[in-house]
Amino acid sequence: MVLQGKTALITGGSSGIGLATAAMLRDGGARVAIAGRSQDKLDRAVGELGGDVVAICADVSSLDQLERMRTELQNAFGSLDILFANAGMALGTPLATADEETYHTLMNANVKSVFFTVQAVLPLMREGGSIILNTSWLNQVGTPGRAILSASKAAVRSFARSMSAELIDRKIRVNAVSPGSIETPIHRGKNQSEEEFRAYAERVGAQVPIGRMGRPEEVSAAVLFLASDASSYMLGAEIVVDGGRSEL
Ligand SMILES: NC(=O)c1ccc[n+]([C@@H]2O[C@H](COP(=O)([O-])OP(=O)(O)OC[C@H]3O[C@@H](n4cnc5c(N)ncnc54)[C@H](OP(=O)(O)O)[C@@H]3O)[C@@H](O)[C@H]2O)c1
């Protein structure tokens, strides 16, 4: 198993891409911790993963909660080899109507949280460690109504380069993964029926060259590669997993 003997933390590991990645890294031999704000979601995720996973209830945009997360992680594992900084959110931000509160909500959730998550766990990271940041296909294309979301993800893409340069002496690699439209709860509207969601997924899928939305596991496979020594020559790089949406 490629991750035998390694420890991993996945923020936002209770749902979607994070949950699929928790399963894949665990199946790859790693001891896995997942973090998220909702204890209910964490409990359900641990059940789905079949136990044997450490769950940490923490809001990664709060520095106090990040400190507590590090303590819980230290108590559970002692040290850390892999961080997947995945927690994040999406909101529409039309230029004409987006307000200041939405700006801060998105930037705190997607940018501040990633910077301070890395800072918080660094004291635990071992030489040879791998940090993977979750950005988005939106970091490199312009689409209407998503300026703040896209800028937040472009900042995370930039972090992968700067942080990798800063951590190279400690032999810690930082890389990014950029998902396209992936079928996860982030796309589900409140009170949306399954039928309505399927129609939405068809519409979005039709805009992607490959003809469908992606599956969370298709992103997790890239994370597994970046987490493992198979990617040992990759630093500050990005793997785009978007069905060709930003390239074709
Ligand atoms: N799905 C896509 O199409 C897509 C495309 C590009 C990029 N992404 C990125 O992929 C990442 C994962 O998204 P997803 O699609 O898997 O969404 P998801 O199913 O909604 O999962 C989001 C996860 O993040 C956690 N989370 C959110 N804010 C948090 C916070 N402040 N502190 C701790 N945990 C937090 C959520 O748990 P709680 O709510 O309990 O905190 C949940 O576990 C995000 O960064 C997203 O921007 C997704």
From TrEMBL:
Organism for this UniProt entry: Rhizobium aethiopicum
Protein name, per record: NAD(P)-dependent dehydrogenase, short-chain alcohol dehydrogenase family
Top-level lineage group: Bacteria
Listed InterPro entries: NAD(P)-bd_dom_sf, SDR_fam
Gene Ontology MF terms in the entry: oxidoreductase activity
Family: Belongs to the short-chain dehydrogenases/reductases (SDR) family.
CDD domains: SDR_c
Entry-linked SUPFAM superfamilies: NAD(P)-binding Rossmann-fold domains
Keyword Oxidoreductase: yes
